[in-house]
Amino acid sequence: MDNIVDALNNAYQEFVAAAAGVLEVKESSGGQKTAATDAALENFKQRWELFRVACDQAEEFVESVKQRIGSECLVDEATGYVAGKPGQAASTGLPPISAVRLEQMSKAVRWLVIELQHGSGATGSSSHPHPPAPFDARFSEDAAQ
């Protein structure tokens, strides 16, 4: 993470320096277009692009961390791992489930999302190309279904 922050900071500093360079060159040329102003503008344009790339990379990193934290929290809550105490009931009052069962349910949800995206969820269940994941009677939450 430090590398990403450093890269973003460096790209920003270079971008600001390039902007200042454009202003200085433009002032020294009396506002006239010269080879120096063209070069300063080209440098500014390159630094702007590099800064945008650094911002995009930082944003991708933040999004990946958010997803990882969200996934870890979901697994912790679903399996009953709360505040470093495995096996303690989650604060939602729901009984914990196994990580394997959580993965099965996650796959079933992904299949449903795929089916809905392809429009097959709006028609009858007989036309589904992929049957939904079967319920497993060994799990108490499935037995009620």
TrEMBL record:
<protein>
    <recommendedName>
        <fullName>Mediator of RNA polymerase II transcription subunit 32</fullName>
    </recommendedName>
</protein>
<dbReference type="GO" id="GO:0016592">
    <property type="term" value="C:mediator complex"/>
</dbReference>
<dbReference type="GO" id="GO:0006355">
    <property type="term" value="P:regulation of DNA-templated transcription"/>
</dbReference>
<dbReference type="GO" id="GO:0048364">
    <property type="term" value="P:root development"/>
</dbReference>
<dbReference type="InterPro" id="IPR033244">
    <property type="entry name" value="MED32"/>
</dbReference>
<dbReference type="GO" id="GO:0010150">
    <property type="term" value="P:leaf senescence"/>
</dbReference>
<dbReference type="GO" id="GO:0009631">
    <property type="term" value="P:cold acclimation"/>
</dbReference>
<feature type="region of interest" description="Disordered">
    <location>
        <begin position="120"/>
        <end position="145"/>
    </location>
</feature>
